[in-house]
């Protein structure tokens, strides 16, 4: 099976089975035995097609006589993966894309499927005039003052981001480039700003409108672009095994260069193939996630509980800071996986299978970490399907569970202790608003510090964390 055929099988299977494409991809790759370059192509194609699906469907809508939602499901995914390669995977030769898409379409058994696919894709190929550098994205902080004026500021922010370009005819490509077409593809950013951003930057319209109202135009555009980038592999050196400089030196011996001040790994192969990883010298952890554990302000020897611990990165980080950590999770399989990870890194963590809403613990802990289940809107670059599965009414739906877990955490902290509550969401209902509501319910609770990281030019992923102190 070719890489493209495997990607198509994964995407169709995920849609029909209602599963995440990543699950099917791992399974199919294990069965297929593809060589390294083909594995990489299949992986990139699956993730990029899902990530950019909104933009891809907009392109198809501009060139196909059949609406995307009216196509046969096989044809829909054949064309989606082909457009993804033409626009977002520039290194793939166009002739190879068209040839294989045509053959895959013929194999569906529909009489003129091959001719239809060829016609649509050739029209798109002819209309795609060029790729051009788009200029560097700039840091864009939230601008709450824009809340009332974002319909007017979006066109200006679009022009600032892509100056001098025909905005209705461009597709921003995450590698710092734009694809320019010979015709308008998107709604007018002056007349319908959310629809323009939704289509050109492949996020649901309701989410675009929410972010515009909260953050303003520039920060929203930066967050949408971040959600479309392939996230860099951020790593954390394990101080129980090495120094950052020592890790950098060992990785260099393994053929990988990193900047010790910004440890992001460029490695196409499996991480487990690196001896430094197997020996526990580092863990893979997003930079936003790495910022949570330090908020606990751990002192050596303190007792810390992590009630929603899987996959265990924050628990290991707390142990590396000198805490005696109890890591709990309700899923026995995840607890088993954490045990293997802690053995690899040498983190002395005690494990417990328990429901975070009802932990069988007494109030003896100096600190408790709650990494609550959430909508994942801060990590859309990693959880590529979340944007299409999440609905507006779902935001805040996990509030009762989040409150229950936070209250349970406050119940197992001793007087004077603290709770760090975190999510990988950037929605206020799951973060600051919820924390303040719980604090108002409690007796002697104080909000000491908050941290909000928005996805953007500096951070591919975002999230929220807060430290709550129980008065002694």
Characterise the protein shown here.
- It is a single chain.
- This protein has 472 residues and is an alpha/beta fold.
- It folds into 4 domains: 130 residues, N-utilizing Substance Protein B Homolog, Chain A (Orthogonal Bundle), CATH 1.10.940.10; 82 residues, no CATH class; 54 residues, Sun protein, domain 3 (Alpha-Beta Plaits, 2-Layer Sandwich), CATH 3.30.70.1170; 185 residues, Vaccinia Virus protein VP39 (Rossmann fold, 3-Layer(aba) Sandwich).
- It is built from 19 helices and 13 strands.
- The strands form 3 sheets. Strands 9-8-7-10-11-13-12 form a 7-stranded mixed sheet, sandwiched between helices. A 3-stranded antiparallel sheet has the order 1-3-2.
- Strand 8, helix 16 and strand 9 form a beta-alpha-beta unit.
- The termini are far apart.
- The model has no long low-confidence stretch (mean pLDDT 92).
Write the layout of secondary structure elements.
Blueprint: H1 3-17, H2 21-32, H3 36-51, H4 53-63, H5 73-88, H6 94-106, H7 113-127, E1 128-133, H8 150-161, E2 170-173, E3 177-181, H9 193-200, H10 205-215, H11 217-228, E4 233-237, H12 244-253, E5 264-265, H13 275-278, E6 282-284, H14 287-290, E7 303-306, H15 313-320, E8 324-329, H16 332-345, E9 349-353, E10 365-371, H17 386-389, H18 399-411, E11 413-423, H19 432-441, E12 445-453, E13 463-470
Parallel strand pairs: 7-8, 7-10, 8-9, 10-11
Antiparallel strand pairs: 1-3, 2-3, 4-5, 4-6, 11-13, 12-13
Helix pairs in contact: 1-2, 1-3, 1-5, 2-3, 3-5, 4-5, 5-6, 5-7, 6-7, 9-10, 10-11
Key descriptive features of the protein:
7-stranded mixed beta sheet; N-utilizing Substance Protein B Homolog, Chain A; Alpha-Beta Plaits; about 475 residues; 4 domains; about 15% strand; 19 helices; alpha/beta
